[in-house]
Amino acid sequence: MSDLPKVSFSKLSEPSNGVAVLLAGEKAALGPIGKALDDSSGGALSRAVKTAEFTGKSKSFLDVIAPANLSLDRVLVVGTGDAAKLTDLDWQNLGGAISARLANGAQTATVVMELADGTSPGEQAAALLGVGAKLSAYRFDRYKKKKKSDDDKPKTPPRNVVVATDGHTAARKAFARLDAVSDGTLLARDLVNEPANVLSPEEFAKRAKALSSLGVDVTVLDEKEMRRLKMNALLAVGQGSARESRLVVMRWNGLGKASKKKPVVFVGKGVVFDTGGISIKPAAGMEDMKGDMAGAACVVGLMHALAARKAKVNAVGVIGLVENMPDGLAQRPGDIVTSMSGQTIEVINTDAEGRLVLADALTYVQKKFKPGFIVDLATLTGAIIVALGHEYAGMFANDDDLAAQLTAAGEATGEKVWRMPLGAEYDKMIDSRFADIKNTGGRFAGSITAAQFLKRFVDDETPWAHLDIAGTGMASPKTDVSKTWASGFGVGLLDRLVADNYEG
Question: What is this structure's pTM?
Answer without folding.
Answer: 0.96
